[in-house]
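Sequence, please.
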């Protein structure tokens, strides 16, 4: 299908809404395990929503509010490096485009 009919992926993703639960993040990183295993750098590379970033000190920051809840990070993270669960009901990504 062409971009003419459906638009680019970026444009379609921009239509999604995110309801954040500021007091209850659904993603937490064990910085020590992430650093030792290289998981942190991998998370930055593979996340389609780009919610992970590397700080100057080598720690990994996560902006969970924009998470697409796709599970890509779970597939690549070393055991114990990531604590992840779906957001509470009514929170998280609300998809507007199929």
């Amino acid at each position: 299908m062409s971009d003419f009919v459906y638009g680019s992926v970026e444009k379609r993703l921009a239509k999604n809404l995110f309801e954040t639960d500021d007091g209850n993040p659904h993603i937490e990183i064990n910085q020590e395990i992430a650093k030792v295993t290289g998981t942190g750098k991998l998370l930055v590379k593979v996340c389609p929503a780009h919610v992970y970033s590397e700080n100057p000190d080598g720690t990994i920051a996560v902006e969970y509010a924009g998470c697409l809840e796709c599970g890509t990070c779970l597939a690549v993270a070393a055991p114990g490096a990531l604590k992840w669960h779906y957001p509470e009901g009514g929170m998280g990504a609300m998809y507007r485009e199929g």
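The longest helix spans residues 39-46.
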